Amino acid sequence: MTEDSEPQKSEIAAWQWRQIVNGATDTAIITTDLQGRVTSWNAGASNILGWAEAEMIGQSLSRVFAKEDQEAQLGREIADAMTKGKGGGEEGWRLRKNGCRFWAVGELSPIRDKSGVVGFIKILRDRTAQRDAEEAIREERHALEVLNRAGSALAAETDIHRLVQIVTDAGVELTRAEFGAFF
After folding, report:
1. How far apart are CA 35 and CA 74, in angstroms?
2. pTM for the full model?
3. Of the candidates 69, 70, 67, 64, the residue with the CA atom closest to the CA atom of residue 122
C-alpha cells in the first residue's frame, strides 16, 4: 500500500460529537475553562445534577461539590490535573441543584491543543445506589458476625447470668443502642 492509497482518517463533526456525549445520559460529561467555569454540559450532567446546560454555562464547577469544600475541592482537582494529568478520582459527596447530597466519583482531566492545556473535562458518575448496597452488605455482615460470636459463646456457657449478659451485649451491639435503651 502506498502513501496515496492509505485510508483517510475521518473527523467527527461537532454535531456528531455532541450527539455521542449527550447519549451518555447516566454520566455527567462537563468541560470547563482553566478557571473551572463550565463551557459545556451534557444531558447526563442535567439528569444527575439537575441544572440545565444554560444554567451552568459560565458558572464555576465548584457548585457541584459539598458546601464545606466547594472551592478547595475544585482547586485541588485543577492543580492535580495540571501536574499529574488527572484530578479527583476519589468518591465523595456532591450536590444537586435542589441541594440534595449524593455520593459520586469523578475525574478531571486536561484538554490540550497545540499550545498546551486549554481547559478540563470532568466525568462524574452517581454512585449512591452502589454505596447504599455496599453499606447494607457491611451491616448484614456485621450482624452475622455478632450473631455468630454470640451463638458460639451461648453454646459454651452454662451460667444463666452470663447467658443473659451475652444476649444483652449482642442486642446492644446489633441495635447500636445504649445499654439502658435496649430494655
Report:
1. 9
2. 0.67
3. 64
